[in-house]
Amino acid sequence: MIVRSAGRVLGALLCCLAVLTTGCGTEREQAGPTASTPAWARGMPAVTAERLPAEARRTLRLIDEGGPYPYPKDGTVFGNFEGELPRKPRGYYREYTVRTPGERDRGARRLVTGRAGETYYTDDHYASFTAVLR
């Protein structure tokens, strides 16, 4: 009886360990270097657009459609003052708000696009970015 219980506990612990070591589908996933990963996304966390939060996917659709955008600052120049994205001339990047449920203001989530088609997602107000593979 005790051996059977210990076996179940050990099995449950091993399952938990497997989930922790392999990940469990967080917003930020590291994309392995593959031939299909664009050069601008190599060396940083990456996620496919389908794995973004629903609000970010809605914002991507608005960007693709050219608006209209719900926030006045959407589509304005992103200065990259934090230096987290590759250095480019001023005006190269544009930023868009990703609505955060429960927030009364713009919140911390943004999509940033580059002139060459790059798309980046941040959920911590520019402290870090994830490349969005489309």
TrEMBL record:
Keywords: Hydrolase, Nuclease, Signal
Signal peptide residue numbers: 1-21
Source domain of life: Bacteria
Recorded GO MF terms: hydrolase activity; RNA binding; RNA endonuclease activity
Keyword Flavoprotein among UniProt keywords: no
Family matches, as Pfam families: Ribonuclease (PF00545)
UniProt name for this protein: Ribonuclease N1
